[in-house]
Amino acid sequence: MSYKIGLVLDEPKIEMSTDESRSADEQKRITANKIYEVLSKKYEVVNIVADVKIIENLKNSNIDIVFNLSTGVRGESRQSQIPAILEMLGIPYVGSGILAHAMALDKTVAKQIFKYHDVLTPNFQIFHDENEKLNPELKFPLIIKPACEGSGFGIHGDSVVYEEEAVRKKVSKLLKQYQPPILAEEFIEGREFTVGIIGNGKDKTVLPILEIDFKDIPEEYGKFYSFEVKANFGHKTNYYCPAPISNKLEEQIKAMASKAFDALGCRDLARVDVRVRDDVPYILEINSLPGLKPVYSDLTKMAEAAGISYDELIIKILEEAIKRIGKVRRVNS
């Protein structure tokens, strides 16, 4: 059956001139163009910008389903904004729902859910004020980061700290730049992995695990996924997929990532970030709206290792959503 697909895109944030925002806008543009190209080979596709006119434009589009790429406009639960509008209008869509996006975006909420569901995650503290008392049970080093950002925003080479004064200095700086809260998390000194998941329930596909090796990154940018590493040092970051790990560790990582996916109620696709210390995997966070830029994005690297081409990956994500939804109906029918 042929469907008319609405590809919902973010409006470029031209008023923002930071390196972070420019890089994110460029990645989104490339991704959107490529996904439009892929979907157009099989379906009728229309681009819909997530701006103030989106409700009117969605109503008038006569689409069957939305392939959502929008991270929302602003606010602590912005990734839930487009799903909320689509729910209100009764339009089926690809990806996680309102609550899952909200919880995944706010790392402090996600980590509390993980703990409830016995998903191992590093110990942490939530800061709304730089003067809050530091939990003495937290073990240094700590990594300090915004609770509600993605793509490495707010995470830099100086984000890993080794004493309390540095915690307060970094928390104070981030509170001036980003919406609270700020997360202080025990930094797991070990290997870093990410796990791509496509599908739902018992039928979901866990892609080959990707290891991210930072040994060739200059020390000042951090041996972890800082913004500078993501944006500027892809050529110095070593990616191994499938990750060179034992079968036992692979099973542990995949099981924990799948459990985290289910704990937040994610749907259709997500990427789960993991660090391993002493052969114990710790879930750092879930990206419920992972990047899909060809070649560059981790999910596309993992799909390629599984023998899934970029075109096949995009179609598979859409078809998993259609299968979950059951029967996709026209908005105006």
From TrEMBL:
Keyword terms, alphabetized: ATP-binding, Cell shape, Cell wall biogenesis/degradation, Cytoplasm, Ligase, Nucleotide-binding, Peptidoglycan synthesis
One function term, GO molecular function aspect: ATP binding
Assigned GO CC terms: cytoplasm
One GO term of the biological process aspect: regulation of cell shape
Location of the ATP-grasp domain: 111-319
Cellular localisation: Cytoplasm
Family: Belongs to the D-alanine--D-alanine ligase family.
The protein's name in its UniProt record: D-alanine-D-alanine ligase
Origin species: Lutispora thermophila DSM 19022
